[in-house]
Amino acid sequence: MKKYLVIIALLLLVWEVQAQGLDPVPPPEPVNGVPVDGGISGLIAAGLAYGAKKLHDRRKRM
Question: Is the predicted pLDDT of residue 51 greater than 90, yes or no?
Answer without folding.
Answer: yes
